[in-house]
Amino acid sequence: MKIFIDPPNSLILFDLVERFGHEPLGAMAPIQDRIDKIELDMPPMNVTLDDVVKGLKYAGIEVPSGIRGRLALWGPLIDIADAAITMSEPPFNFGCVGCERSNEMVRYLIRRRGIPHLIIGYPEDGDEAKAVVGQIKEFLEGLK
Amino acid sequence: MSEERETRIFMISPNSMTTPDQLVREIHAMGKGVTAKETCYGTLVEGPRALVREVLATVRGKHPYDIYSKVRAYPTGDPRRCRAQHGTRPGYSQLEAEWELLPLIQHGLICSDKGEPFEVPKEKDKLPAEEFKKICEAIR
User: What is the pTM of this model?
Assistant: First the structure.
């Protein structure tokens, strides 16, 4: 099954979802599509001007272009996902998870689709890590 | 996603005894015809998707708890991302932060494979305003 991961570039989530036999939907696939098929002419940005327009499907015109650009990449993934896993409140706020408004929009879009959604936190000690891995495993096995 | 190329990050957990050099040698020794580039955190592997998946399966089989992997969008050595060519690395802060957490995930995976029961941690309550006020007044 296709599992949307949030943060979409999370190594931990991508690896765990794949380990437990599902297909993770992360930010890397749509970015690779853009790299292989069309030239990204504005590095370090991973989106084109067209993407910001496409993001209008997921966020209103009054929403900042940064959020629309992110949702242009992540929105289509949420549309095709069978389930989603969110690791909330990451202890770092750089890169694509740096915008809390985008993260809220992602959670809203997942809730609106009504797909199974697991929300967990980043582990801080061994017991929490055991619970995080256990919860992800149980959630993914329950989808089969 | 392209069926032709897959680039993968192989990240070694900080408490592993495997070094990036050993991992690259192991991947080269498999003779799959993929490109392996040694990095500070592990290795980048690039090649046709089927071959990269074979390498991934072998590496996971050999180092089930030591090495973690995800797809990378940009090809190896892409001038827009390669540090040698002063490329930007906007996702690196997250990778670094998650790298620090890998020993915990390793512990979680080992416990999960042993079938150990786990307790879901309770959600932390918000601090009541009165209590917060007391803390503020105590350190004023």
Answer: 0.88
Cα B75 to Cα B54: distance, rounded to the nearest angstrom:
19
User: What domain range is B28 assigned to?
Assistant: 6-114
Asked if the structure places residue B39 within a domain, the reply is yes
Query: Do the Cβ atoms of A109 and A78 come closer than 8 Å?
Result: yes
B27-37: per-residue pLDDT in tens?
999 998 899 99
B80 Cβ contact list (under 8 Å, min separation 6): A40, A43, A44, B74, B87, B88
Q: How many domains does chain B have?
A: 1
In this structure, what CATH number is given to the domain that contains residue B56? 3.30.70
Compute the nearest-CA separation of A109 from chain B (Å). Answer: 23
Compute the mean pLDDT over every residue in chain B, rounded to the nearest whole number. Answer: 88
Per-residue pLDDT tens over the stretch A72-127: 889 999 999 999 999 987 766 655 667 888 888 999 999 999 999 999 988 988 99
Give the dihedral sign, CA B50/B79/A26/B12: positive
The ipTM of this complex is 0.86
A28 touches B: beta carbon within 8 Å: yes
From B2, B94, B102, residue closest to A7, measured CB to CB: B94
Determine, yes or no, domain membership for B129.
Answer: no
Count chain A–chain B contacts defined by CB atoms under 8 A: 130
Under a CB-based contact definition with an 8 Å cutoff, are residues B81 and B45 in contact?
Answer: no
Residue type present at position A83: A
Q: From the CA atom positions of chain B, what is the Rg in Å? A: 21
Number of domains in chain A: 1
